[in-house]
Amino acid sequence: MPVIIESSHQRSLSYGLCPGARPDFSPLARNDLSMLIEQNRLLHTHAVPAMETLYQQIINTHNMVILTDAKGVIVHSLGDDDFLEKASRVALQPGVAWSEESKGTNAIGTAIAEQTATLVHADQHYLQANHFLTCSAAPISDHQGKVVGVLDVSGDQRSFHKHTMALVRMSALMIENQLFSASFEDSITLHFHARPEFIGTLMEGIASFTPGGRFLSANRNGLFQLGLSFSALQSHTFSSLFGMPVSAMFDHYRTAAPGLLNLCMHSGVRVYGRALLLLRNEVQALSGNNERTSSAATHASQAAQVANARRLSGLRYLNTGDPQLEQVINKVNKVLGRDIPILVMGETGTGKELLAQAIHNDSPRAMGPFVAVNCASIPETLIESELFGYEDGAFTGARKKGSIGKILAANGGTLFLDEIGDMPFGLQARLLRVLQERMVTPLGSGKSIPVNVELICATNHNLRDRIARGLFREDLYYRLNGLVVKLPPLRERTDLEIVVKKILATESNGGRYTVSEEVLFMFMRHKWPGNFRQLTNLLRTAIIMAGDEYEIGLRHMPDDFLDDIDMHPAVDKGVNADKMIAAGANLEEMEHSVIVKSLEAHGGNVSATARALGVSRNTIYRKVPHLK
Ligand SMILES: Nc1ncnc2c1ncn2[C@@H]1O[C@H](COP(=O)(O)OP(=O)(O)OP(=O)(O)O)[C@@H](O)[C@H]1O
């Protein structure tokens, strides 16, 4: 038996636990659980996406992914618990404690006690009741090296796989890096590695400094590469660790297309680095003098905003099973990093900006800025200076210090031009020139600055229509539409059920809310003119209305929504609801009748029917069993 397990058994014995005892799997009371989730909100927020990704790797292996707090109490669990006996299912649910004190030797508790990644397999568990499990756990530390939680994969011991531990470790590292980046609002963050291709990967070191250059913290790999302990690093500065004054680092970023920093660590080892400046408010110059906003600073500020707001979303999180969307994601995946402009079409609220952000996050430019500009919301008179920037003195008045503009702010990253159809005609030629020449000339400046951006545009207009009406330049259209994708409106999506579940989980911060069959059916009939924006708002309010009742029913729906459904039934053509009600049909019968009618209308094609009704094919098969 490994030493670590042996010492854990001794500790378990000293806690007075008996190997044959029945473990106590009673979870925390609901209020205490809500409090626990609240206390661990940051950890929870950053861990959930990594848990979902991890779960994708082990799906169908009879394993669960578990997140606990620093004391081993489960905060969130995810996955298939079918492998557990009914009585044990509760054991891996939120609110149950897995500390060594309560369950004896187990991966979660022992990882906390030993502060290291731990595998506990089958009879290595102290309690016999847990011998059927195999568990791999890795502690998650915050930016000060303090363990704040544990990530664990637990499953039937017969499903043991030797790669699981490595996956858990990597995912825990990912969460630590996310937590690290979220911990400093006013700081310089340096991402570094001896090999440039490792920057932006899990292997990179990350170190944070105050804007003046004093050391704040480093992540696990950062400490390893620097070869110093956390406490020894406290007396260091950016310059003493990397042989470059912060002012020189900023000079480097003042060039239009800065490459990686070439640094020499205090140990003599050469590393490459990319620095970001994260500032809470408007960006200021750093190096002691009052220089105006620098491109590096703006670049970094944008990156910080992205980092904080949406760093977690990637294309795979958007793929929830709708075939139209899946096609979009497949197409987009093929052009990632290929410098092909993407044009996203779709009604309002279908997630065009979210898709653009996900494309950016999955692209090789993810470490660069993501800059979104809504061409419809900026007054026509301002859009030119917003986009192209202006020199000192180009305007008289308060903002005379100059601005680099959104295009240059996106340098090295992605520029997202939303509502491109509303771009003023006169500016379209200027934008086209920038795209062709890859140079920007700020207003009032005779100097052109090279720029390197990936372009994603979105529109809910028919651009060809606008070209025909003389409102949009044809040459710009052909420059923008390298890849054109169309996001389906919500009423055409077949994954509505999953989408609803996902939004409920996000909006209730991992709570267990569901919608009743009736509500789901109603959702499937709705036209959703506001798409995701409307659905999200509706569910957010419904959660509040439902409160302690975890199932959202019709009574939790706002009246205007119910009225709307009556006025705009999306799919009841051919089914006479009045007659059915008069005949005393219940909802299930009506639903059945709607599906059968729709099947008839689609010549018996289940996929087309599912698409039309906004449900999955499985739902159709489930509701009309004779189709099988
Ligand atoms: N797949 C999704 N799951 C959950 N929420 C989503 C999804 N897609 C979009 N949303 C949410 O819906 C809202 C609208 O999304 P977004 O701004 O990306 O849409 P849009 O198509 O760009 O809208 P508009 O055309 O009005 O600018 C946002 O709050 C976003 O977070």
TrEMBL record:
Q: Which GO terms describe its molecular function?
A: ATP binding; sequence-specific DNA binding
* Alphabetical GO biological process terms: regulation of DNA-templated transcription
Please tell me the species this chain comes from.
Massilia eurypsychrophila
Which Pfam families does the record cross-reference, listed alphabetically?
A: AAA_lid_14, GAF, HTH_8, Sigma54_activat
- SUPFAM superfamilies per record: GAF domain-like, Homeodomain-like, P-loop containing nucleoside triphosphate hydrolases
Protein name (record): Sigma-54-dependent Fis family transcriptional regulator
Please list the residue ranges annotated as the Sigma-54 factor interaction domain. 318-544
Q: Which residues form a coiled coil?
A: none
Which keywords accompany this UniProt record?
A: ATP-binding, DNA-binding, Nucleotide-binding, Transcription, Transcription regulation
UniProt signal peptide: none
